[in-house]
Amino acid sequence: MINQGLVLYDEDYKLIDTELVRLNQLANAKVSFLVDKDGQLIASVGETANIDTTSLASLTAGNIAATGGMAKLLGEKEFSLLFHEGVKDNIHISLVGQRAILVIIFDNRSSLGLVRLRAKKSVIVLSDILANLIKKMETSSHTKEGATFFTEITEDDIENLFS
Where are the beta strands (DSSP E) in the chain? Predict the structure, then answer.
């Protein structure tokens, strides 16, 4: 399949959001969000008001890409889990299938062990949601033989729209 961006349907977004809310609560995290590997924010929950989630999503994808390079140098396929410890906040990063990244920001109200446990379970749920989403994309009318619905629009269609 051609590597194309995710087409997120409303029902899938709701499933993702529900899982992130559940994860955020059970892990006692500050923020949980899902990013695609291109750095696009898919969904976020929690205390996001003071965080530039768009920039953080992009930097997270870059971090995963850089870590992937290190993994290859060491003969590994990839590192599926990253952890960054700060003075007041910590970041736990997990790969979700081949398409997404789960990011959990937590402080001293939680623990790495609890976050890892909850993240592991959520990765399974989110992987299933994304797998079903990709199946929908492959069978939807939006993609026919690798073409997006934009490539099906002709100049006549555009002219008719504006006339």
Answer: 31-36, 41-46, 81-85, 90-96, 100-106
